[in-house]
């Protein structure tokens, strides 16, 4: 029976955009996205969507309230759906066994329990959240125990979209992965989900496999991507002390077709809700499987990322004459990458934390991040458990020029395009002298900045006037 109704549990960065594209490409399928957060659902039903993604609002406005619905009424959406995506968050555990490494699967479990409680007819349940290998087995067990009379098929269909390019990633994916049970019923369920994607994804891009391979592929793919960033960042440290230029090195190694040129940009470190969490997830699984060498290998990717962030802040303090206490430092960009307002695990948070530990006065500008979000991130207990200190040391600027006024240093943390085209002559004039620029993303014209008179510090190279 073809899929006519889809329910998605979780209206976040994955559930929202994914279901908007499915509804857009499959007009005969009714798609309902449910969430426990009333405010998130309200935002999805308004013109101020809860997340920023280029192209998202255009698609949502074409299909919302036609065949795409956002609601907190989960029961009826689950009950009437043929296929249910679980797209809830799977953050790293902050307490108990596996604290700091294992993913917290409580949201996945509660979604599975809800499905079992509400469903009265067979359904295909699709795990879209990133989960440890064998999580589908746990979902299957919950469903079988709580609703033994209903035949469920549980599939793994990990999402590979990247924030900032989510819509184009969803419209033209490199591949769509579907894992399922190796049985007749499993193959049939895989086929049903494949037919949904076939509305716009060429068949040869649909890869099917067993559930465990599919679950592990997602973790492994993110670990490989994070590893590339940590690898080039490790090289950047060597460049800075030898006079080599990390951009030239990246260009040279990326021209090798076995290596490829993407994901070779040195930076202040990777952020986002996925890379660190998923690598740690792989570390935890490897430890649990008694594979300590494998765990240690992947853990090094995280340690290198921490080192890169720390190295960058140490350099700021060192260049500013060994002290930033009381100095005004402009932080340009707070989201973890451009074209998103998402700040989860953003390197900016860690850079601000270290500067604030030194009692610097931090002025933050970001074109998309809500000031309230910045306050929440920086007053987290692990960052700065003191709202009075926050009010004394942190200012949010509404435009880049007011951020840099009287600043001793401007620190580029996010690669927003608008930072490239700012009037740096004007900026130089309003900053304290010597005026320092720290480019943590290698996006600025360093020669021009040196010509203006800035002291320029860049990851992975020593900029010089030629
Ligand atoms: N963000 C990304 O770029 C990305 C990319 C690929 C995969 N993933 C994975 O997808 C999953 C979701 O990520 P996200 O970034 O969309 O998370 P998110 O935090 O943005 O969204 C998750 C949503 O699920 C809701 N939720 C939690 N439990 C619920 C329940 N029982 N019923 C209804 N709603 C519930 C939350 O309120 C939240 O709105 C994670 O496993 C993540 O690792 C994320």
Short description:
With 466 residues, this protein is an alpha/beta fold. Helix content is 44%, strand content 14%.
Give the key terms.
globular
Question: Topology of this protein?
Answer:
Layout: E1 5-9, H1 15-25, E2 30-34, H2 38-44, H3 56-63, E3 68-71, H4 74-80, E4 83-86, H5 106-118, E5 123-127, H6 135-146, E6 152-156, H7 166-171, E7 176-180, H8 184-197, E8 206-210, H9 211-242, H10 246-254, H11 275-288, H12 292-319, E9 328-332, H13 347-357, E10 361-365, H14 371-378, H15 387-393, E11 394-396, H16 400-404, E12 409-412, H17 424-430, E13 436-439, H18 446-452, E14 455-458
Parallel strand pairs: 1-2, 1-4, 2-3, 4-5, 5-6, 7-8, 9-10, 9-12, 10-11, 12-13, 13-14
Helix pairs in contact: 1-3, 5-6, 9-11, 9-12, 11-12, 12-13
The protein binds nicotinamide-adenine-dinucleotide.
């Amino acid at each position: 029976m073809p899929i006519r109704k889809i329910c998605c549990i979780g209206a976040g960065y994955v559930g929202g955009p994914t279901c908007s594209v499915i509804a857009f490409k499959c007009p005969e399928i009714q798609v309902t996205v449910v969430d426990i957060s009333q405010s998130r659902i309200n935002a999805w039903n308004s013109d101020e969507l809860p997340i920023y993604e280029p192209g998202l609002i255009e698609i949502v406005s074409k299909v919302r309230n036609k065949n795409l619905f956002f609601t907190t009424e989960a029961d009826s959406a689950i009950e009437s759906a043929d296929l249910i995506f679980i797209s809830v968050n799977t953050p790293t555990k902050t307490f108990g066994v596996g604290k700091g490494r294992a993913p917290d699967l409580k949201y996945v479990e509660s979604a599975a329990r809800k499905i079992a409680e509400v469903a009265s007819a067979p359904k295909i349940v699709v795990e879209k959240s990133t989960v440890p290998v064998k999580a589908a087995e746990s979902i299957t067990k919950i469903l079988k125990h709580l609703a033994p009379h209903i035949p469920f098929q549980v599939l793994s269909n990990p999402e590979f979209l990247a924030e900032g390019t989510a819509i184009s990633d969803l419209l033209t994916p490199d591949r769509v992965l579907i894992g399922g049970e190796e049985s007749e019923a499993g193959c049939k369920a895989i086929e049903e989900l494949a037919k949904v994607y076939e509305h716009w994804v060429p068949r040869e891009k649909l890869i099917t496999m067993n559930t465990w391979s599919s679950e592990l592929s997602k973790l492994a793919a993110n670990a490989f991507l994070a590893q590339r960033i940590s690898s080039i960042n490790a090289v950047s440290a060597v460049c800075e002390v030898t006079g080599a230029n990390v951009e030239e090195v990246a260009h040279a190694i990326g021209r090798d077709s076995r290596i490829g040129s993407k994901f070779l940009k040195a930076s202040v470190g990777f952020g986002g809700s996925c890379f660190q969490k998923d690598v740690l997830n792989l570390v935890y699984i490897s430890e649990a499987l008694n594979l300590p060498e494998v765990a240690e290998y992947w853990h090094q990717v995280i340690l290198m990322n921490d080192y890169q962030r720390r190295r960058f802040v140490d350099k700021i303090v060192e260049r500013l004459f060994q002290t930033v206490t009381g100095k005004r430092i402009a932080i340009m960009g707070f989201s973890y990458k451009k074209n998103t307002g998402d700040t989860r695990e953003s390197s900016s948070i860690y850079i601000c934390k270290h500067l604030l530990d030194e009692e610097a006065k931090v002025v933050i500008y970001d074109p998309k991040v809500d000031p309230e979000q910045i306050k929440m991130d920086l007053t987290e207990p692990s960052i700065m458990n003191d709202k009075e200190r926050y009010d004394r040391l942190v200012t949010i600027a509404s435009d880049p020029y007011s951020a840099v006024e009287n600043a001793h240093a401007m620190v580029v943390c996010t690669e927003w395009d608008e930072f490239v085209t700012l009037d740096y002559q004007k900026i130089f004039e309003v900053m304290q002298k010597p005026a320092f620029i720290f480019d943590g993303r290698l996006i600025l014209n360093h020669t021009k900045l040196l010509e203006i008179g800035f002291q320029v510090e860049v990851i992975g190279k020593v900029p010089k006037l030629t």
